[in-house]
Structures
1.
Amino acid sequence: MKIRYLSLSLMLALLSTSALSAELIVGDQKGNARAVMEAAGQLENLPYKLSWYEFPNAAPLLESLNSNHLDAGLVGDGPLSFAAAAGAEIKAIQASQYLGNAIIVKKRSGIKNAADLKGKKIATVKGSSGQNLVLNALKQANIPADSVSFIFTTPAEATLALDSGAVDAVASWEPYVSFAVAQSGDQIAVDGRAFPVSNYLVATDTAIADKRDLLQDFRQRLVLAREWGVAHPEQYAAGIAKVLRLPENVALSKVQRENNAPISDIATVRSQQQNAIDTFTRTGLIKPGLKADQLIDASFFAQQ
C-alpha cells in the first residue's frame, strides 16, 4: 500500500478551511454585546465565522432563536422567562448583572416614584425587563399590579408616545433611557439600579449540542469584554458611540448605568432568574411551575 503524506502547507490550508467552515450566528440588541466585544478587541482572530444580526428588542430575537435561525443571542431574564414558558428550547449560558432599566417620565409630570404610577398609562414591551421593573417597583410600593395600564409597543415608539402625551411613563432600558434623558429632558422616576436583573447570553439546545466549543469560546470572549467594559467606561463609551451612532454623553451614560459585570455565581443567576419567573407568574402572565434551572445550562458556568 502506498502511503501519501500531505505537505505541511496543504495540511495547514485544510485546517484553516475547516475552522472557517464553522459558523456561529448571534442575535444582538442595540449593541448589547457586539459593541463592547469590538471595543475590547475580543472579536479579533476568531477561529470560526461569526455572523451578527441586530434586533430592536428581545421578542423578535427570541422568535429567531426558537426557529433555529440563530445559534445564540442576548436577552434579559424577563423575556427568557416568557420564551421558556411558551416552550422555547433555549438556555442561558452566560449572565451579567444589568442595572440599566428605568421608568422615565416627563419633567413636569408630577410622577416622582412608583407610588405615583397608580392609575397611569405605562408604555413598554410586553414580557420585557421594562415590564418586570414596573411590576417589582409596584410590589415594593404596595401598589396592586392592576392599578396601572400597560401600553405594549416597541422601545422607540414608547418614547415617542411619552413625548406626545399618549402615555404617562415609559419602562425601558439603555440606550433608550439615557437618550430620552439627554435629548428630551425626561426624568427617571424609578431607577433599575434598585432592581438588579440578569442580562444573558442564551443559546438553542441544538447549538449547545452541535456547537458547544464555539459557544464556549464566544462566551469567554464576552466575559472578558464585559470585564473590560466595566474597568474602562470612557474607552468603551467612545467605541459604542461610533458603533451605535450615539452622542458621546448618551454613550457614556449608557455604559455607566448598565454595569453589565459578569456573574459567575450560579446561585445568584438562579435567584435573579427565579425572581423574574415569580414576578410574571404572580401577575398571571405566565403559568405556574416554571423553575430557573430549566432555563439555565449550569455546565457552562461550571467551566469559568
2.
Amino acid sequence: MSAQLAVPRTPKTAAPAGAKAPGRGWAKTGKYVAVAALLVFTLFPVWFMLSTALNGRASSGTDSLFPTHFTFTHFTEALGDGGFGTFMLNSALVTLITVVASGLLALLGAVAMARFRFRMRTTIMVLILVVQMLPAEALVIPLFLQMKDLQMLNSLLGLAIVYTAFSLPFAIWNLRGFVAAVPVEVEEAAYVDGASWWRMFRSVLLPLVTPGLIATSAFAFVMAWEEFTFALTFMSDENRMTVGVGLEQFLGKNTNDWGGLMAASTLVTIPVMVVFVLAQRRLTSGLVSGAVK
C-alpha cells in the first residue's frame, strides 16, 4: 500500500474585529437612500402646503417651493374674513359628539357580541359587515329624505348622528376582537372578589380594551372631521357648514385663492396630526397599563 502524503493546510486567518462583510456597507447605504426617498415623497405635499400658506404672493397661484414673502396673512384672513373659524368650531362639535357616542355604543355592542350568546348573534355580526361595505354615496338620498322628515336638516346634531351610524360597524367589529382577547377568568376573578358588573367593567375590562377604544375613536375622529358628502348635502346654512365644505369657498369660477386654501388646509390637518400622535402614545401606554392592572 502506498503511503498517503499529508497535504499541509493553510490556517484560516480570523477576520479583524469590526470588519464589515463585503457589500454590507452598500446595502445599508441603499436602505438610507430608500428611506430618504420615501420621506421626501411623503412629506413633499405637506411642505408645499405650508410653503404656499406662508407665501404672501401665493394668492393667484405659485410654483415656488419656498416662500418668497413670508407672512401669516392667509391664516388670519381665513379665520377672520373667510369665516373658517366658525367652520372649525362646527366640525369640532360634530366630531366630539360622534367620537363620544360611537365609542360608548361600540364598546357596549362589542361586549354583547363577545361575551353573550343569544339568537341571531351570527346574523347580526354578518349584517354589521354588510353595512360596513355599503358605499356612503349610495345612502345620501335616502338619508337626506329621512333627515328632512325628521326636520334635522341644517342640524349639527343630525349630522353627528349620521356620522355615528357610519362609524359604528367598524368600531363594533374592531372592539369585539379586543374584548374577546380578554380572558374570561379575569372577569370571574373580579366577581369572586365581590365586584359588581359595573365595577368589573370599569376597573378590569375597560383598562384592557383601552387601546382598541382609542384606535376606533381615532377612526371616528378622522371620518367626522374630514367628511364632505353628507355635510354638503345636509347643510345649506353657511353658519353651520363644516371644514370639508368650507374649503370650497377658496375656489372660484375664474380665480382661486391658493394661499387661503393652503392655510385653511393646514388648519384642518393640524388636529388630525395631533390626534394621531396622542393616540399612538396612548395605544402603547394603555396596553401596558392594562396588562399590569
3.
Amino acid sequence: MSLLARLAPHLPYVRRYARALTGDQTTGDHYVRVALEALAAGERTLEANLTPRVALYHVFHAIWCSSGAQLETPRDEDSGDDDTTRRLMRIAPRSRQAFLLTALEGFTPTEAAQILDSDFAEVEQLIAEAQTEIDAELATDVLIIEDEPVIAADIEALVKELGHTVVDIAATRTEAVDAVARKTPGLVLADIQLADGSSGIDAVKDILARYNVPVIFITAFPERLLTGERPEPTFLITKPFQPETVKAAIGQALFFHPRRASKQAA
C-alpha cells in the first residue's frame, strides 16, 4: 500500500489537530504539508512499531517541535481568535499538546506519550496541568439532574472540587426545567432515568430548546443514547463512574463548547 493510501484516512484529523495546536488553519496546514513532504522525500519515516495514525502524528510533532514550536509567541487578546483558540494558546505548549491529543483527538495517554516521545507519567502530569488551567478559567454554574441522593452528592462534591458552583440538583424532568428557568447554568450533568419515571433525555431536550449549554450524560443506561437514531451526545459517562473521568469530561465540555448564549430572543 502506498504512503498516501496509508495516511489519507488520517489527514483530516491531523489537520484539525494542527489547527488547534497552532491557533491558525493556514499555519497548521503548512506544518502538515512539511511533514508529508519530509515523509515523501525519505527525510522522515513512519515508525514501524506504531499504528499509522500514531506514527503520522509523531512525525508531525517532530517537525513542529523542531521549528514551529520555537517560533510561537503569546497571542494578543484582540487578535480576532475565537474563545476556544485564545484559551488554548494560553496553555503552556507541552501541556496543550498532551491535552489536545487526548481530549480532541481521542488518543490514550500511552499513545500520546508515543507521539510526544515522552512517557505515561509525564503525559498524565501534562494533562493534569492543562486541566487545572482550564478549570480555573472556566468556573461556571452547574445543574445536576440526578434522582439518587448519594450519587448526586458525589457529583456535587466533584463539581465543587473543580471550582464550579452547583446551582440546583433536580430529581425529575419538571424540576430540571424549573431550575433552569430560575437560573441558567453554564453546564448540565444529567442522568437518564429519573425519580418519577420521567426522562433526563427529555429534560435536556427541553433545556437545549431554549439555552445553548454543554451537557454531560452520566448514566447506567448508555445504550439508550447510542441508538444511531439521533445525534449522539459528545460526552457520555457510564455508571459506576471514575471521578477523574467526570472531571476530565467537565473540563473538555466547557473548553470546547462555543460561547454560551441563550437561544431566547432578547
